[in-house]
């Protein structure tokens, strides 16, 4: 005799299931959120189709072409612009400028006579209007609604019939008939499913603002990132006006593009040439500095790395980094001690970037090593030099990707010498410092290991190496 299935219990916040009732959810640790869930009884049956299946070559793509958002840097990240019917998720920390960016996009879309609906659930309509007055975003084709109910939002869509819909934010919209609070898993899933369904059926480009957790990940269920077409991260330092938009997922374009913006009191402005923001132009040689060339997406950017080394009075010397990966800086310090004779076990080490840049690419290892060795010996590197290369634990320099683009960007900004890793050749051994070759007007010097690079730049003494 078969036993009847035991009633399951489900968390209304995160969807966690358990066979018996408990007072606290074992997944999200919420109290009092476990309720009894009845067994599903629905059976799928064949129904009428909405549109017949056709050969893929006969599908009309004229309605799904890119349309400019009016913000060139955002178009660059999206792969060309906004696609009708696309669902875009924009996430970022509080106060980073998500609402300001989307209000600018909405205003630019309205200026080309495409009706736009901006739904705000976090602010009142008057507050958004004040920001629009400050940034010059007032237009007759831009409609504004302050709603937190999903049914009211769908009614606004039916009445306005916009070409672009902005929802700020999805965590504030409540769905009728659900027991959990707005922002919970069930609410976010229901609201997202309804908005995406309307976007696909009416060819409305929909931009949804999402919150992030304290770890920097998008709040809510991961299914939200799967059902949307594009996932964008808006990031930046609170102490800096510089902002960056990264594409984490894009069904219509590349996922390695980065858009740069300048956020100020008068609005947000695209920064088409951000490389100069992270390089301090010194009029003389300064110890403890070196310029690295990193890749943000497919865009090369120059960033200055600075190091400071002082004697430590504490038992455990400090290792402080800002804008750099602390674990990679620790690895560079170990390589300097083992292979270059730069021992800093009794010194405090501080390493940072200029302008609030975030540099985590391994290609910046050589610049970090040059800056720290220069600060230790108080021997400045020559002016007009950039260094790029990944450092291995054996002290060797490894090749980095997109080296021609990096060299071209450094040459465009007036740098004269580039120190890069040597190419690996099987037919012959390459000397420690190869004969410089000229690329885009720059002297490109290839070296095989970090010690050779430091001697070449003169930050550690060696009479056998020719300084730059």
Automatic annotation (TrEMBL):
Residues 348-468 are annotated as: Lon-protease-like. Residues 63-212 form the RecA family profile domain. Keywords: ATP-binding, DNA damage, DNA repair, DNA-binding, Hydrolase, Metal-binding, Nucleotide-binding, Stress response, Zinc, Zinc-finger. Coiled coil: none annotated. InterPro entries: AAA+_ATPase (IPR003593), DNA_repair_RadA (IPR004504), P-loop_NTPase (IPR027417), RecA_ATP-bd (IPR020588), Ribosomal_Su5_D2-typ_SF (IPR020568), Ribsml_uS5_D2-typ_fold_subgr (IPR014721), Rubredoxin_2 (IPR041166). GO terms for cellular component: cytosol. GO terms for biological process: recombinational repair. The middle region has homology to RecA with ATPase motifs including the RadA KNRFG motif, while the C-terminus is homologous to Lon protease. This is DNA repair protein RadA. The gene is radA.
